[in-house]
Amino acid sequence: MLPKEHTIVSVDEENPQTKTIYVGCEDMPKPGQFYMVWLPGVEQKPFSVAGVAPLRFSVCAVGPFSSKFASMKKGGKVWLCGPYGNSFSLHGKKIVAIGGGYGAGPMRYLSLLAKKQGVEPVLIIGARSKDRLMKGENGMRTVFATDDGSQGIKGNAVDALKGVLKEGKVDVVYACGPEKMMGAVGKLCIEKGIKCQLLLERYMKCGFGMCGQCSIGEKLVCFDGPVFGAEIVEDVEFGKFHRDCAGRKKIL
What we know:
Order of helices and strands: EEEEEHEEHEEEHEHEEEHEEE
Number of strands: 17
Strand content: 25-35%
Shape: globular
Strand order of the largest sheet: 10-9-8-7-11-12-15
Low-confidence stretches: none
CATH class of the largest domain: Alpha Beta
CATH topology of the largest domain: Rossmann fold
Radius of gyration: 17 Å
Mean pLDDT: 92
């Protein structure tokens, strides 16, 4: 699949570091799937889908590529390959969707789709502080959690999940965010016997299983995922290691 050129149609500022970029592309990928985004002369990186009609991506400016992508304006050009990977599977009548940091983008998309299908979603958005939180979703119950207590509950997204679970039965928990956060979510769900699906992020060069850069144990995030069941947290590499651009293991 060759990259296709698309035009940025609008940009929404989520917080000083994070933008959601709307691209003039009418693809209808499923929640959990991702695209390889290419900026000529810079690099290409994977980005999970944060919404459709038009297609959108949430990006936090943390490195050279993401800073460039986040700084782009309406009318700018990006090249996309995708969609790649598997997707979330919606089950049950009540779900919790947890987004840590810019992982809130894909979780808002999942929650909106769930609501349209008659599922009751609770959206949890977590960050270190108020100025790092992404926005909630109008007309949907959203629980904010900040480490410093500057907005919502004082604590992390897992603390917020524990509070929601005390209120009554939850059929499935979904999460996207820092790997250590997802590890805690997965372990809690295993302990309580709740179904759980996690959207992983790893370094990728190709996006379709050729380069091996996104390996986690014997699995490839792009080819076997990026959505995995909670059992992935029991892998020896989960939450402990990732691989850099040369394929070397690095401690998280």
